[in-house]
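Bit of a strange request maybe. I'm writing a small parser for structure token strings and I need a real example to test against, not something I typed by hand. Could someone generate the tokens for this chain?
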Amino acid sequence: MKEFYMKEALIEAQKAMNLGEVPIGAVIVKGEEIISRAYNLRETAKDPTAHAEILAIRQAAQALGGWRLNGCDLYVTVEPCPMCAGAIILARIERLFIGTMDPKGGAAGSLFNIPEDGRLNHTTSVETGILQEECSAIMKEFFKKIRKKEK
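Reply from user aminoacidic:
Good idea to test on real output. This should exercise your parser:
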């Protein structure tokens, strides 16, 4: 099932790419039901907080009628940044599944490990490498296109 949900997150990432956004997608699952899905919209919304994870968390909270997302899992194509990792903890998400890691900005194992930091009032388990090649490939494709435009 992990691969199924990550494929759904990749569909969201493709939507971001089609808009010229950094192609990161996220889905939140409770039980076996996807309760929210989102993709990066920073450029479109002109909002530095419009990351896929933040938007998915907001939608899930609306769908469930509260900010505590107990029993929910988040699937995201790229390792969350510090802001998103903090939001994951604050939302009480149970498990985080990551496609590919972000060695330059990741806060779920690369630079920091906010979700599993036992000093915080909640921890979220982290599993990485779900459809890693596919998640990495869409990012590489996006940045290759960006570099071509800059020349």
